[in-house]
Amino acid sequence: MSQTDDKRKASVMVIDDDHIFRNMLENCLDVFNFHVLSAKTGQEALEQLQHITPDVILLDVLMPEMDGFELCSRLKANQDTRDIPVIFMTALTDVVDKVQGFEVGAVDYITKPINIDEVRARINTHLTLRKLQQALQNQIAERDRLIEDLSAFSHTVAHDLKNPLGHVAVSAEYMKDEWRNMPPNDVDGFMTLMAHTARKSCRIIDELLLLASLRLEQIVPTCMSMDDIVREALQRLAHTIEQNHAQIILPSAWPPAEGCGPWIEEVWANYISNAIKYGGNPPVIELGADPPLHGVIRFWIRDNGDGLAPEDQAKLFEPFTRLEQVRAKGSGLGLSIVRRIVEKLGGNVGVESQPGEGCLFYFTLPAAE
Q1: Could you tell me how many helices (H) and strands (E) the chain has, helices first?
Q2: Residue 89 · residue 13 · CB < 8 Å
Q3: What string of DSSP letters covers 137-192?
Q4: How far is CA 23 from the centre of its chain?
Q5: Distance separating alpha carbons of residues 3 and 9, to the nearest angstrom
Q6: By C-alpha distance, which of 236, 248, 329, 250 is closest to 282?
Q7: Are 274 and 300 a contacting pair, CB within 8 Å?
Q8: What pLDDT score was predicted for residue 322?
Q9: How would you list the strands of the sheet with 86-90, edge to edge?
Q10: Strands 296-302 and 359-366
Q11: What is the average pLDDT across 256-278?
Q12: Mean of pLDDT over the chain
């Protein structure tokens, strides 16, 4: 695998105080289709690296003020730059100098005068190694997420499903033996409770299945009619809205965004349901969107509830988390699903709130062209 296998050019930063050598190397690397960055001092390189992240750094050892060893040490001490492969360029042949270079974090050495084919080969080798390292890191992170999800899934099944299904089983056993002797109102009460509990269990199962499918399902975002999507979400919640006497305030128009209609309907349904559940009495809920900014639209929903403290806000979108005594109803899956959906569509989620001033939940999506 070489750098030409990527759709984008691999970027190489050349750091050398000899401008003639630096220009020669830049021109050669440009011919080999690398995107070349350059700096003549260690300090200049550090300033550039605050804003850019090259794929590989070619670093001269003997430079004034800050030599290559010191610069490499600084790069490896910085979380943002420590993983960039550094290849030293030097006329030094002493083994001690090479050992020192490896000790401060360099991955390779090129001896001056350089052979440009050797330089290209070494760069491509370390680009390949870096890609393999990143792929391995991604696989480890994905494995850790799967382990976390599996643990949370089992917790949800054990607690959020076992308890209501246990109640249904106990009620059914009792009804089987006693329904003939029970007053009609008591029979209706038991049947209503059992039906409600069964529906709740089915919703939890549906949420678990949706959350699991989001990891695997691939979709191509399209331009959506947000007006239709919100209308469908409100229709799903019509009984809850009526039961809680909730007032829903909608904008006159929605800006067009890209996404997946059924998924975004699920996002709105979760947000609206939460706003009703934790809003005021009665709930007054406003939906809206900000004008597109840099190709991104922020959609939001504001409630008139008690609001949330900053420490509680930080927990809301964690997988399978419920805020004890704050937002403790439900299975803790809804906002996890919202986050997974929106992030898979290239957006992000969040909440803004002050205690006693309600909450504003939002999600972002790419604006449709």
Answers
A1: 12, 12
A2: no
A3: HHHHHHHHHHHHHHHHHHHHIIIIIHHHHHHHHHHHHHHHHHGGGS-HHHHHHHHH
A4: 40
A5: 7
A6: 248
A7: no
A8: 46
A9: 35-39, 11-15, 56-60, 86-90, 108-111
A10: antiparallel
A11: 91
A12: 84
Weakest-pLDDT range from 131-140, 142-151, 189-198, 333-342: 142-151
Contact 273, 334 (CB under 8 A): yes
pLDDT given for residue 154 in this prediction = 63
Please state whether 152 falls in left (phi above 0), alpha (psi between -120 and 50) or beta: alpha
Tell me the residue type at 343. E
Query: In the predicted model, what is the mean pLDDT of residues 337-351?
Result: 88
Cβ(81)–Cβ(53) under 8 Å?
yes
Q: Is the pTM of this model over 0.90?
A: no
The arithmetic mean of pLDDT across residues 208-220, rounded, is: 68
The pair phi, psi for residue 299, each rounded to 5°, is -100, 145
Query: For 67-74, what is the mean pLDDT?
Result: 93
Question: Which amino acid is residue 164, in one-letter code?
Answer: P
Which region holds residue 213: left if phi is over 0, alpha if psi is between -120 and 50, else beta?
Answer: alpha
Which residue from 249, 149, 166, 250 is spatially nearest to 208, judged by alpha carbons?
149
Residue-level length of the chain: 369
Asked whether the predicted pLDDT for residue 104 surpasses 70, the reply is yes
Strands (E), 29-131: 35-39, 56-60, 86-90, 108-111
Question: Tokens 């830049």, residue?
Answer: 26
| pLDDT in the model for residue 177 | 81
Q: Where are the beta strands (DSSP E) in the chain?
A: 11-15, 35-39, 56-60, 86-90, 108-111, 222-224, 247-249, 257-259, 284-289, 296-302, 349-353, 359-366
> What is the rounded average pLDDT of the residues 91-108?
78
Residue where the block lists tokens 């997946």: 260
User: In the predicted model, is pLDDT for residue 167 greater than 80?
Assistant: no
